[in-house]
Amino acid sequence: MNRAFTLRRARFVMLCLLPGVAFVAVFTYYPMIRGAVIAFQRYNLFDVTATPFAGLENFRAVLAEERFWTALRNTGTWVALSLFFQFFLGFGLALLLRRHFPGRALYQAWVFFPWAMSGFLIGLLWRWMFNGQFGVVNDLLLKAGLIDERIGFLATPGWAMTSVIVANIWYGVTFFAIMITAALQSVPGELYEAAAVDGASRTRRFWHVTLPHIRPTLALIVLLRVIWILNFPDLIYSMTGGGPAGGTDIITTFLIQQVIGGDYGRAGAVGLLVLGLLLSFSVFYLNATRFERAR
Amino acid sequence: MRKPVLTALPAVAAVATLVLASCGSGGQPGSGEVRLRMIESLTGPERTKLIKSLIADFERANPGVTVELVSPPLDSADQKITQILQTKKGLDVLEVRDHTAKSFSNNGWLAELPTTDWPGWSDLTELARKKAVEVGGKPYLIPYGFYQRTLFYRTDFGMAGPPATWQELYESGRRMTSGDRFGYSFRGGKGGADYAVMMISAYNGEALNPEKSFYLKDKRTIFSTPEAAQALDLFVKIFKDASPPDSVSWGYPEMVQGFTSGVTGMLIQDPEVIKTVEESGVTAWATAPIPKGPTGYAYQPVGYAGWGVTSFSEHQKQAVALVRFLSEAKQSIAFAKGNSLIPISTRAQDDPQFSQGAWKAYLQAQQDPKQVITIRPVDYPGWSQFLVDSDRDVQALITGKKTTAEVLAAWDAFWADQAKKVS
Amino acid sequence: MRRVAALAATAAKAVVLAAWLLVTLFPLYWIVVTSLKPKPEIFSVPLRYWPASPTLEHYAELFSFADFGTYLLNSLVVSLVAAAVVTVVGALGGYTLARFAFPGRGALVLAFLVTQMIPLFIALGPLYLLMSDLGLLNRLAGLMVVYVAMLVPFATIIMRGFYERVPVALEEAAQVDGASRLVAMVRVVIPVMLPGIAATFVFAFVQCWNELFLAITFIDSEDSKTVPVAMNSFITQYDIDWGSMAAATVVSVVPTLVLFAVIRRFIVEGLTAGAVKG
Predict the structure, then answer these.
(1) CB < 8 Å to B74, chain C
(2) Residues 6+ away with beta carbon under 8 Å from C166
(3) Which residues neighbour C18 within 8 Å (Cβ) at sequence distance 6 or greater?
């Protein structure tokens, strides 16, 4: 197709893009920019009659807080462990689901179920299951003889982080399974046939045919997932509220606490720091995986 | 042919939402009818029902006025109220709490309530009238009741009587703790720091300034003394030796549930719990005033909340009428009874409910000169930040991530700094 | 020997799949069981894995105490309309991004991606004031508008991936026959894209259906509450009512499960396509 940029085309492009751009500009960018400006103001709900420009004061205050750094470390653990298990379990599941077997359709339907729930509900569900007194997880572990007495999962710093990550893995495996299933189906059959003719073993075929072919897809979904897991306070918020003692605070739950504390200036500063972090991570990541070139 | 289709399709998307916008919710009230919007903060299902029934009475007495009650979930209610107030529209009557009063009035969101032409004003107790004008010197709200903590204890868990001091509470609690049973409903989650402050205050004894209860009479903070360290050490011991490990994250519901389900033997809470415990099926229990420190003093603030009118209400007259209606003897006593609050009406003194059974502990505390009512520095700019920060410090403390010395140093520094900002 | 090995592999695969199914479904099972237990039984040790005296009291309570039917309807209306608008808007935007090289295209994609990186919470305050000025607070339409804005970037980008899979020749053939670009798009491209469109729609629907933070910010009137807002209200000061909470969870998950069942085939196909070129 001739892709010259004629006036007629320009009008078509503009008309098609207009609704999307308008929605995003008015209801996302405008408030975000306003929110970003607040990061440079002294803006506390305690007194909004005076909101003077404060330069980098909010950023300095946030960076001086020990809790910010704790939250940052926790964010690392939260993202890395969640991602690691979601990815490999999802990948495994997708490989097992690749070939047809009787009842596969039904199996897929059921196993994708967590995806239908909200992070908030999943948090509540697991909070109930991890309950120290009446939780079913404790009961099962006791019955299995793995523990001798009930564990206050959400009440003990180390366990709390493990618990929220377990819940997140349960939730996220599905996403990877769907995406990777899709990617696997896109590998052209001829490639395998050719490899089979060459006498390549199954393992070899996986490493030399399948993986290179789906690598760009994997790279992209991992990036999307990192962003989403990091910006996903719902589950932690309804499970532990960031506690105990900030043990499960990630940077976004820390942000929510700033908002509840009424200091919108600092909240804005945290938000911008998150953005900076994700942007630099994305740039670094895209360079490292050569995503664009692979496409 | 080409052009119309071209323009039509993209426009559909935008138009669809706009059309929906115009036929969305909420029909306009008919002419001449006044529609008030009212929001509550300490939401609970039973309480909401009660408020709705009082509103229905108001509507019957005032034809042409309807009231829409908004009941946001407790967790984020004050934040929601603040958000609505910021837009300066769509709200007429609101629940103002002791720790939101200052910020709401600072921002000019509250209307001064006229009291001179209102006979109900003189029916209010002295405390109620004092609290009504506590912030900003003007009546920005009429309290609907008071909260004061009291000790609930099981009489069938082997205690001879209620503990009179925190040390005794610790010891009885430790004795009670074995297996699935624990001594004390510890609050390690949201609001936990309040209990630490309660103990620290008691240990500081006479030196404390009740008018600004985070400071001593000599202007130092209550967190700077060796007594504060003693108190906080005992606080940690109560958690470690006499409370369920889970309580590290307990807030209000878990504490109460712990007590009513028989997991814990002691609980320090507000009077509305009386009702919850009565309905729970637990029979062997009693109440007592909160424990004291070594010098025989106990301090606690009297919590309150009330109804106020927004400064931007388009129906000031009707809004004020609603607040007055809710604050009059009959309604306010019904509300206090329904929620087990200390009532605001002088006429409640004749009511037997407020002097019998579990309520006796309150009378006892009122008559004891060493059970002192304090005023917390809720009007300092750092107050709401401290609420968030201190709870997390308490969790860090009881999980061993911070020492008592570190926590006290942080709190001392925070409030010494606040003192500078205010003066 | 080889057949034995193959059989063993199949058996191992079956065991792993069964184990994972168990892990996935157990929480669902547990929430259903909890919702059927009378209150005292929920808080009793030892735990029962099937209620001793199953009851529907929590469900009855749900529909009597709270106006749950209204919330369900609100959620349904908001999610369906918003998802439909998102799908149309995304389809239009994705098409242009896939088919035209125009100045600023890269910047636009980047701008869309950035919206996914900024925490929602810093925009909430200003967005609230904006919604108030536009008179969109406490209205389902307001919620639809913000949901559309929230989901358009993702929908557009994923749709672009779908279009890129559709051979340009298909369209050109139609255009040669005299159809306009848009008509060609509707007649030829859309049918090929159906799985992708279905996937986008379902994705958007699920997001809207489950969305909590925006909904609790912009809705507080009883008659405009959505299901997540109502469920959030169940966490009250007095008592976390696990029975009602469990019942509400079960009820609120049903519509998405039904939707999944109906168009599951499309979703997997569609997401596959989107993932490849997304």
Answers:
(1) 235-237
(2) C189, C192, C193
(3) none
Counting one residue from B and one from C, how many pairs have CB atoms under 8 Å apart? 113
| Min Cα separation C67/chain A (Å) | 19
Cα B398 to the center of its chain, rounded Å = 24
Q: Above pLDDT 70, what percent of chain C? A: 89
Choose the closest CB to A22 out of B14, B107, B401: B14
Enumerate domains of chain B plus CATH numbers: 34-147+303-344 (3.40.190.10), 150-301+370-422 (3.40.190.10)
Chain A residues with CB-CB distance to B106 below 8 A = 46-47, 49
Angle at A255 between CA A250 and CA B245, to 5 degrees: 50
CATH fold for domain A57-294: MetI-like fold (1.10.3720)
Residue extents of the structural domains in chain A = 57-294
pTM above 0.90, yes or no: no
Q: What's the sign of the alpha-carbon dihedral B79, B82, B87, B92?
A: positive
Per-residue model confidence as pLDDT tens for chain C (278 residues): 678 888 888 888 889 999 999 999 999 999 999 999 988 888 777 888 888 888 898 888 888 766 788 999 999 999 999 999 999 999 999 988 988 888 888 899 889 988 888 777 888 888 998 999 999 999 999 999 999 999 999 899 888 877 877 777 777 777 776 667 777 777 777 777 787 788 888 889 988 999 988 998 899 888 899 988 888 777 654 456 788 888 888 988 888 888 877 776 666 555 555 544 33
Point out the residue among A3, A27, A259 whose CB comes nearest to the CB of C145.
Answer: A27
Q: Kindly provide the ipTM of the predicted complex, given to two decimals.
A: 0.82
Q: Does A123 touch chain B (CB under 8 A)?
A: no
Q: How far apart are CA B396 and CA B408, in angstroms?
A: 12
Of C89, C235, C237, the CB nearest to B42: C237
**Contacts A–C by Cβ distance under 8 A:** 250
